[in-house]
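Good morning,

Attaching, inline, the backbone tokens for the sequence recovery test we're adding to the shared suite. The designed sequence is right after.
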């Protein structure tokens, strides 16, 4: 399963705006997608490989993970946290234990970590930490909603994809920033963000020896960065720029 996760992370980009294109069936497959899209795609891959897969929503129904079973072993996988190894959820729940799994990005040779802990009666929490550049020290990962902390109830796992809830969540979330994320060959995280209000692009690189680098792109730099990204994604540069333009127009409505 580790090889499947490694391959999936490197070949499937993350973005938080693909749902804008679903209603009119605008093609976006090469851009990847959000947590719901990635969970569904990874579930398809795992089922072909012989695993039994169930979907599990967080208690607030704003995020989704996978419960994967094979040979009487049950694992938790989050397709959006760049998880590199599955977490044995049997051990966590049965022994009231904590499991720490490796994830991307890798900073100064240290992988990020996903910590999974039992709360009570089948409820468990998932939290991600990223190396801060100093050996053995980590900081909690954050997203647009604050710290990355998810709470699940194993009894909520279902073999059916929650399509209606996915549409409700995606329709309810107001985006302030468009994000496209890729994993580079050495396990670094590369993001291109675009502020919905100002339209300004930001380039973010996380990993390697320099830790985190964030900088606002000048207008003259945008085509250069987009050209590099479009080659990686197998898209024409005009198409990639068009995706961001189309998404920002829809996000502003």
């Amino acid at each position: 399963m580790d090889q499947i996760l490694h391959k999936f992370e490197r070949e499937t980009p993350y973005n938080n705006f693909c749902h804008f294109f679903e209603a009119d069936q605008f093609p976006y497959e090469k851009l990847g997608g959000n947590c719901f899209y990635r969970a569904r795609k990874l579930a398809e891959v795992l089922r072909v490989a012989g695993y039994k897969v169930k979907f599990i929503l967080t208690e607030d129904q704003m995020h989704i993970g996978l419960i994967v079973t094979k040979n009487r072993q049950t694992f938790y996988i989050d397709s959006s946290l760049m998880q590199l190894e599955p977490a044995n959820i049997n051990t966590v729940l049965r022994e009231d234990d904590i499991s720490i799994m490796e994830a991307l990005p890798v900073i100064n040779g240290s992988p990020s970590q996903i910590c999974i802990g039992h709360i009570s009666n089948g409820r468990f929490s998932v939290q991600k930490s990223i190396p801060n550049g100093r050996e053995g020290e980590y900081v909690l990962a954050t997203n647009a909603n604050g710290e990355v902390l998810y709470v699940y109830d194993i009894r909520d796992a279902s073999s059916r994809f929650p399509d209606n809830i996915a549409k409700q969540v995606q329709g309810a979330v107001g985006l302030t920033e468009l994000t496209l994320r890729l994993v580079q060959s050495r396990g670094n995280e590369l993001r291109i963000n675009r502020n919905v209000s100002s339209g300004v692009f930001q380039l973010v690189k996380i990993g390697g020896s320099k830790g985190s680098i964030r900088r606002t792109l000048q207008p003259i730099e945008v085509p250069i960065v987009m050209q590099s990204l479009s080659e990686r994604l197998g898209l024409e540069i005009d198409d990639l720029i068009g995706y961001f333009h189309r998404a920002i127009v829809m996000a502003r409505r």
